[in-house]
Each structure stands twice: as C-alpha cells, then as structure tokens.
Amino acid sequence: MKVSVSRFANNPLLTPGDLAPSRPDFEVTCVLNPGAFRFGGRIGLLLRVAERPVPEPGFLATPILAEDGAVSVIRVREDDPGISSASSRSFAWNGRFLLTTMSHFLIAWSDDGGRTFTPDYSRRLMPEQSCEAYGIEDARVEQVDGEYLITFTAVGPAGIAVGCRRTRDWRSFSSTELILPPSNKDAALFPRRIGGRYRLLHRPSDPACGNHIYLAESPDLRCWGNHRCIAMTRPGCWDEERIGAGAAPVETAAGWLELYHGADRTGRYALGCLLLDRDDPARVLARSEAPFMEPEADYELNGFYGNCIFTNGQIVDGDRVLLYYGASDSVVCGAELRISELLASLKIGDFGRKTA
After folding, report:
1. How many domains in the chain?
2. 226, part of any domain
3. Which has fewest Cβ within 10 Å: 13, 41, 69, 101?
4. What CATH number has the domain bearing residue 267?
5. Is the model's pTM score more than 0.85?
6. CA 36 to chain centre
7. pLDDT digits over 117-172, tens only?
8. Can you give the residue range of the structural domain that contains 173?
9. Which keywords, in A-to-Z order, does the entry hold (predicted)?
10. Which residues face 322 on adjacent strands?
11. Rounded alpha-carbon distances, angstroms, from residue 343 to 131, 258, 284
C-alpha cells in the first residue's frame, strides 16, 4: 500500500533568509533537521541553525568554541600549504579536521497547529563544552517522566558523540551530558520504560562495520548498556549505505513504529519505517521495502546537499502525524501522513539482528 504524504503547501516553512544570525559577523547558511514538541498549548520546533563567519576573500574560516566559552574564528589563507583538502562543509589544515560552519539550536513556535513558525531569539541553545566545540546538531525531543530530554549530536575535536540536555520550562536547560561516546549519533528515546528500563535507539559509525541502528537500555537515562544491533543496511536497497533513527518511536497496538532515514550509495536520503515488538523492541517485526517518502520537490532535490530528506521531529495526534524534516540540508519543511497507512505499507518479516 502506498502511503499518502501531504507536503505542506507553504513549504519550505523556514529558510536561512528567515533567521537572524547569533552575532553580526556571522551569516546563516542552513536551517534544518528540527526536533518537535508540544508545550503550553503550542507546537515548538528546535531548529538546527548552521552559520559561518561572513566570508573574507582569499580565506577559509572555521568557528570554534574556545576554552573561555566564547566562539572564536580561525581564518586560513586559501593558498596555505597546510591545507590538504577543502569543501563547502570542511577543510583539513595541518592535520586538523575543521568545519566551515557551526550549528546551534533555536526554538520556533507555532500558534496555528504547526503550519507556520516564528523564531524565538530569546531561546538559543549554544555549544558550551569542549565536546561541542564544533557545534551541536540534529536534536530529538522526547518528554519522559514529565521532563523534556533533548538528545543531539555533539561535534568536537575528539569526535562525534551523543549529548543530552534537559528542561521542564523551555527557558532553563541543564548542561550537556555525553551519554554515548564517539562515534555515534541519531539517538532517539522511547517515551516510557519497557520492562522497567528506558530504551534508546542510536547509530554507531565504524568504517569497517557500517552504519546500523542499535538499541540500548538504561536504569536512569544516564548510563546506557546492553547495546544490540537491531537493523542493518541492506545491499542493493534504498537504505544500503547508512540508516539512522528519526524521532521517538510511536507506540501502536501493532508495536513501536519508528520512522528512519536511509541513504543509498549515491548519497540520496529517503524515509522508511520499522515496526518493533512492544515488549521486546530489539525484535523487528516489519520494515519498509521501499521508502514511504523520497526527495521529489525542488526544495528537496536542490540545495546545500541535494536529493535529501531527513527527519528527527514529529507531532502525533491520534492517527495523524505532522512530520517535520530538513530538505537538501538547507531548509525546514513539513508533511502530514497517517500511522494506519504506514503500518499497512510495511513488509512483514524479521529484518533485524538480535544478539544474546
């Protein structure tokens, strides 16, 4: 069964030109991959905002969190012999891997049910620690035991890890705790305990072993163990190169429904879903044979990283899902779909790997 995906008529919802930078000598290059949540009767998005120093001809620049907690800018001449590679995203200089942008989080609110959003510049979440010195990316938000937990990718000199911050009021936030070490990302919390323990989907990355989805357990939301690979990439399929969790799994009568991203060998990102057992989420009951959503619109095909859709935020209202996603790593968009159609589209069979 084909899933009916209704893209919002006003897509893209937010573009770089809609946002002010965090400081006057920076410019916003991308707004993407928002987490989503409800608070105070409104829908909020936790936007990933990527910005860079205003370009200076003849120089490459990288923003980095300094030891004093301020963001400093390193500029390197383009003809510097220490530069071994360079792209729009990064460059290598004297053995250091440096990014051309730094990401932070900005809250945007909707008063019309999640169709239009207004940035709230009083609520920026900035990198604070050395593990975030290159930026914080791709937030996932889940309310667990009355508290909002924000899991995200923390990027620093020691690698790419999973950080967590907490809030109850969306004004004050805890400091970052690293809950998973490098190299790891795409961490999505389950909304409740299962068998007395919290559960987390995550995606370790290893050039030798691939990019697969794992499940972890915790007694306290801080110490995570019993890591098990539950879903792997599939050779020759739309998700053959890498996969990663989206937002929190949705509990249904059939099991936990998890929307995930997959990329093929060309780097094209599309969306599919997994169905996990309600009592034993390490067991995959069903998996998308084909994507339920793939890049089609111009804003999904063309941009900073074209042919890409990536979701880590959703609002569930009964059978309806408001899906928020980054398109072409450039803009924020929305779509509406139905849980019943997603479930009906799944290919039944155990496509995961469960270890003892």
Report:
1. 1
2. yes
3. 41
4. 2.115.10.20
5. yes
6. 11
7. 999 999 999 999 999 999 999 999 999 999 999 999 999 999 999 999 999 999 99
8. 6-348
9. Glycosidase, Glycosyltransferase, Hydrolase, Transferase
10. 315, 336
11. 39, 10, 13
